[in-house]
Records
---
Amino acid sequence: MADKPWGGRFKEETLKIVEEFTSSINFDKRMYAQDIKGSKAHARMLAAVGIITDEEAGLLTGGLDKVLAEIESGEFQFSEALEDIHMNVEKRLTELVGPVGGKLHTGRSRNDQVALDLRLYLAEETGEVLDLLRGLCEVLSQRALTESDKLLPGYTHLQRAQPVSFGHHWLAYFEMFLRDMDRMRDTMVRTLTSPLGAAALAGTPYPLDREMTGEDLGMLGVCQNSLDAVSDRDFALEFLFNGSVIMTHISRLAEELVLWTSKEFAFIELSDGFCTGSSIMPQKKNPDVPELLRGKTGRVNGNLIALLTTLKALPLAYNKDMQEDKEPVFDTVDTVKGSLAITIEMIRSLTIREEKSLAALKEGFVTATDLADYLAKKGLPFREAHEVVGKAVSHCEQEGLALEELALTTLKGFSPLIDKDVFEVLKVTSSLGARKALGGPAPQNVVMQARAATSRLDNIWPRRK
Ligand code: ARG
């Protein structure tokens, strides 16, 4: 058992089938850079507190750099027998620098090491997700600025309700993705807490300087309890939850794009690059990208439930079950980043077809509420005004007319309070323009909010590239 770092107490070889079942190298090699970064910080600290010499620390960090270069050039031979990234790196380090390699693991366990690696990895990926969310928010607010007065029927129960604008609609998603950024940023703070030095579960008798390694690694604090340090995966759960909320927002947007590209709505057109055809129906232009975005939400939700279920009822401290934390996390990272990147391009490149949304507005009695408000302003209790307008709508439906197409005398028949100023009120543009209170869709509001977008984004996550 000489080639296993933990082989001392074993007399027989591990079964091949067990090695295959228990090893994580095939997926945790993704964290090689974080593993090496953490080991270098640990080695520097060991020297700073006098556990190893500066020369030994130099050999270890130099050797770790070589291992890093080997992995990045593709020449590194990963071994399943060595289970995971931690032991693969350490074994190669010892081959390169000799027995001093064995000193690296002083005052450390794979349990605090793996917790550290996952935190460092997730903090970096969270930064990339934040960059992408910011990019999406920028595209949405840019569209809002130019489409603040492009009319769109707003819906409730998927029935035409009241006029809004494309700009107002884009800004609704801006708000959602801005909150997603806020959540990710908040999670990042807790992720950047260092478990290093908790060792297996009970700390170590060595005079480790945990704050030093924490600071060296850019952490914002250190875990305060050694048992918790190696058992806590809350930060990963938070990331997975945040990812699910992002995908939920993306899928609602995607669903609307699927609807809006159908002939039944036809409010927008996706650029050809975002669609595919049918092998049998020559007329088809299918919205595959928004459909797939909608579909990918399922796996991301599954990843959250998977990790919650793995952690449920696990006794303290480390248990091998926890190795199952990585694949759901990696899958959510890949899926969320890929989905955000494509959503940005899809929103940027779509074209709106205002003639279609205007036609839909004509048919939907979308200013009926404005007529009721008009009557209420003239003194009729709103409930009665509602009744009056209901009757007018029903009359229009029978006649196949829009409210604004009724003659003034006919309108007066429904209520003597109605006068010729009603025709201004019945215009969709008036309805939109009147909704000026904070958060309403009046074009001037939308423009103001779109202009405020950059400073709100900067407050959460300044642009990095
Ligand atoms: N590959 C392991 C994991 O991913 C690393 C920690 C192993 N620790 C242990 N005591 N077996 O969780």
---
Amino acid sequence: MSRVPVITIDGPGGSGKGTIALRLARALGWHLLDSGALYRLVAVAALDRGVRASDETGLARMARKLDVRFEAADDGVAVILEGADITDRLRSHQTSEMASRVAALPSVREALAERQRQFRQAPGLVADGRDMGTVIFPDAPLKLYLTASPEARAERRYKQLKEKGESVNLSRLSQDIKKRDERDSTRAIAPLKPAPDAHVIDSTEMGINEVMDTIHKLIKESNISH
Ligand code: DC
């Protein structure tokens, strides 16, 4: 039986994955999974309910039960947690820190794994994250690993946050990115790394259109039906 096709896009924060994944999903008419948003949601819920990063069992229980909806919005996707639109809180410094901590907990990852696989629906899925190609969809017919220099990534995040009206400091952001990269790549479970069969794209010197062209070429070369 042929399975619903998945294109996985993994890589560090600020590599442009989110934008690229959204564009690609729209271009193909496929579903989109922003798996980082799930970890961020657990973080927001934990902060709101006073569940600590050290309470792995409590966090995993919460992750299993979260009432989450993703709704199409003009500028991307709106995230609804228990009926409240929390999209604007997802990318804050506090949420990012907590998300990186909860993402290192095996029971939380396990609790979110099945939820992520449920996004695999016809006609296809574009899955954005850290372990999409290595752990969640190891049989994906096309795996991409998008990266960029830490400096370029810090600058992209800086612009993103500024546009949202957050007061940000570039050097602090740069330090945060390095710290999170370190935590995400060295954790024992599902560390950030390219799958052996992933195509690595370094976008440091590339614009979005160039990255999209490269990906469309790879799609043509692979045997993905759509
Ligand atoms: O991609 P992002 O910045 O929204 O991810 C938020 C955090 O969740 C980040 O610290 C990495 C982690 N994450 C993960 O461990 N596995 C994923 N599939 C996606 C994100």
---
Amino acid sequence: MKKNFTFIANWKMYLNFNEEIDLATSEYDNYIKLAKNTNSEIIICPSFLSLSNITQIFKTTEIETGAQNCSEHLKGSFTSQVSAESLNLIGSKFCIIGHSESRKYLHENENQIIGKLDMLIDNKISPILCIGENQEEHKKNETLKKLELQLKKLEESISNNANIREYIPIYIAYEPLWSIGTGNIPTQQHLENVFTWLFEKTQNINNNVEFKILYGGSVNAENTNFLKKIKHLDGFLIGKSSLDFQEFEKIVRLGSLS
Ligand code: 13P
């Protein structure tokens, strides 16, 4: 059955290994009930170290897992990196790429990010590509210009990738940098503009590909009702609020109401 809405929990590096496993095991039944009762797609993205364990924990359930990054290389002398092939082998079906925190702290550029996207598609893993403008660009009204730039390589890559014909939905998460972790969210007008533009853009990229367009940045139980109303929105990418199961549950319940 087609899912109502997507909720991706990006646990970032907030929890240590034990805390991540504890959260997944102590709320195991609740995650499963939540996904079933709301007919939602729930994807948990823990840190690399616990990803395999947590994927195993939820193996026979509707709860999916995703990595927070991957290498743009196939394999070889790339100390510290993790290949898309390995993610596929442990059974994880999603991977966040181009997150603004990886762009900033790991100095990732557009070429590397699109290399990661190609690796993921080749390994049948859905990329969750993060895009968004910074505060300055936002003030100058340059959001769409920035998004256009960030999606340019995606368009080229998808039209050249033979494997894209297989069923691999691509997720695009609009995450304005000035909203992440600040408690500030964009106005309705801004979001309507961005999501209408993103919707039309993705419709024109490649007819054979299913795109989902998500919002991320300070999503919480208080602003879910407001955000949920944005036309063309398919789901949320949630950081801090996904660490507290009760808060996450509220977001999923509110967000999945039609
Ligand atoms: P917050 O929800 O903590 O603002 O983080 C958003 C985010 O970066 C999700 O990827």
---
Amino acid sequence: MNPEDPVLGKHAPLLRRINEELERALSSRVGLVEEMGSHTLLGGGKRFRPLVFILCCRMCGYQEEDSYRLSTIFEYIHAASLLHDDVLDNAEVRRKRPSANNIWGNHAAVLEGDFLFTKALSLAVSSGNLAFLKTLTDTTARMTEGQILELMRTNDWSTTREQYMEIITAKTATLISAACVCAGLLAQVDEGALAVLERFGLDMGIAFQYMDDLLDYTSRQEIFGKPVGKDLREGKVTLPLINALETLDPRERERLAGLFGSGRASEEDYRTLTELVRERGALDQILREAASFVNRAAASLQRFPDSYHRRDLVELSRYIVERRY
Ligand code: FPP
Ligand code: MG
């Protein structure tokens, strides 16, 4: 997380505490497990999920010390899923550094993902709260389903907006939503408040992935921390491409699908298609839609009494559409 960023910078003490807790649970009797864990977790990352969890805990009136330790669950699961995702994507760079699979190979990266995921579950068990644990296991099952759906749609140029929404809700939004719901569970809020927290997290998560997919076409690697134009090369049909394809006649769509799906596309072809998506992908509209998800998320929090923490959450949710990395 960039401490110079005003929205995140104001939470610097909280972020320091989260980082201390993250480091604490990384220990292992096997040196390589610790080394990969430190590389994966301590080298960067916005800590968005733990922050959302702690702010939701506070907004709901849960002020216990263990909220810091429990917040790391969401970063561990996130990190584990990225370790696995980088293997699936053959990614070489993550958070401006070589990815774990790039340094230590696929086998070690997958196993480190398993280690961090297990750490997360072990921490959740220590909460003694079964509903908390169940939310997490349901969430990771949904994330895996999302990844499988994405896999099934790889290079499928007929992917619809609805299918895209289903994928991003499952793979990204459910974990952010779980961070909100689990905070509510600890605070023992009622069913109505839990439903609001769930929706708040889902809306933020959808906006988050919209921005990730938009930045993949518009950002630069030095800022984004990972190569841009990656989605197209991985055969991922995301919203900017779906929008652009809708503007083409079916024959042209088929030609492009054949060219890119067969692996025959040249560098020039990639440049041309990226340009087309920038021109016709309705990128401004995606930004506006992301902002409207964030607005809906912020409005739903009106159900909770006004507090600094509620305002911080609204501010953090708006940061999603302002971020450039
Ligand atoms: C990154 O998306 C990946 C995810 C949001 C989810 C990955 C989920 C799994 C691998 C399944 C669950 C696994 C565990 C261990 C719980 P992206 O590829 O769009 O983003 P990127 O451009 O940063 O790679
Ligand atoms: Mg990926």
